[in-house]
């Protein structure tokens, strides 16, 4: 979920505790809101995607001052009973995500809204914003960034495999690299965000999500598969 660290927010609950508001003390705005009372009926799909988008957009326009700088990046029906898509039967939500894009790079600034597909009520709202400057063009190409990740994944595969002589895995990339601006230790970094996995006779899935500095090729983010 595109949200600020919850440890920096202040929780305020409704009297019936069905709704949680998480306030950002710096912006004095609601950064996160969970509307528990709006969950009922989300096992049914009675709204179209377009109807839900209208609901989400109107809610975002009312509650997010910075919405004009965001671009709608995701618009889908999701399932949440351990199924990754709309085939779930226990719990569903229309999910809409707006992201700020600068010079073709996705930024950490985003708005996420989940709409109950059975009732049209908003179930979740999250808004994250901080000043971000355009990072300019990358010096490192996509292919060079993918090569850095491939080497990293193969190193991990070789370290995990006991019979080195039989190891000759390949690497698959699970999505196209994304150019992103991330904030590390208070500083902006332009990265290629890449998800990759080793292929071959391996004891467990090896790979993960990587952020490669788009200027010098260093690895600034690494989240291995668990």
Protein described:
The chain is of the alpha+beta class. The protein has 2 domains: 6-128, no CATH class; 142-224. Helices cover 15% and strands 41% of the residues. The protein is built from 2 helices and 12 strands; from the N terminus they run βββαββββαβββββ. It has helices at 49-63, 142-160; strands spanning 10-13, 19-24, 29-35, 70-79, 92-102, 105-115, 122-128, 170-173, 178-184, 187-199, 207-213, 219-224. The strands form 2 sheets. A 7-stranded antiparallel β-sheet has the order 1-2-3-7-6-5-4, with helices on one face. Strands 8, 9, 10, 11 and 12 form a 5-stranded antiparallel β-sheet that branches. The protein is globular. The protein starts with 9 loop residues before the first strand and ends with a strand. The model has no long low-confidence stretch (mean pLDDT 88).
Summarize the entry for a quick read.
This protein is 15% helix and 41% strand. With 226 residues, it is α+β, with helices and mostly antiparallel strands.
Question: How many distinct helices?
Answer: 2
Span from first to last CA? Answer: 19 Å
Give the structural class: alpha+beta
User: Average pLDDT across residues?
Assistant: 88
**Tally of strands:** 12
CA radius of gyration is 20 Å
The portion of residues assigned to helices is 10-25%
Looking at the structure, what is the overall shape? globular
List low-confidence stretches. none
Strand residue percentage: 35-45%
Strand order of the largest sheet: 1-2-3-7-6-5-4
* Secondary-structure element string: EEEHEEEEHEEEEE
Largest sheet features = 7 strands, antiparallel
Domain tally: 2
């Amino acid at each position: 979920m595109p949200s600020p660290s919850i440890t920096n927010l202040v929780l305020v609950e409704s009297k019936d505790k069905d709704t949680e508001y998480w306030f950002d003390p710096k912006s004095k705005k609601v950064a996160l809101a969970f509307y528990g009372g709006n969950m009922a009926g989300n096992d049914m799909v009675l709204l179209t995607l377009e109807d839900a988008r209208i609901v989400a957009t109107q809610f975002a326009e009312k509650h997010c001052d910075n919405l004009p700088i965001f671009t709608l990046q995701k618009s889908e029906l999701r399932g949440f009973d351990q199924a990754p898509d709309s085939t779930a039967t226990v719990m569903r939500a229309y999910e809409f995500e707006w992201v700020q894009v600068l010079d073709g790079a996705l930024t950490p600034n985003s708005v996420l809204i989940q709409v109950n597909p059975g009732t049209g009520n908003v179930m979740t709202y999250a808004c994250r914003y901080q000043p971000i400057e355009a990072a300019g063009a990358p010096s490192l190409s996509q292919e060079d960034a993918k090569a850095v990740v491939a080497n990293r994944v193969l190193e991990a595969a070789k370290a995990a495999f006991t019979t080195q002589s039989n190891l000759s895995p390949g690497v698959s990339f699970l999505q196209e690299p994304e150019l992103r601006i991330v904030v590390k230790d208070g500083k902006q970094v332009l990265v290629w965000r890449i998800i990759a996995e080793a292929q071959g006779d391996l004891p467990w899935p090896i790979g993960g999500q990587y952020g490669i500095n788009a200027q010098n090729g260093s690895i600034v983010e690494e989240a291995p598969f668990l």
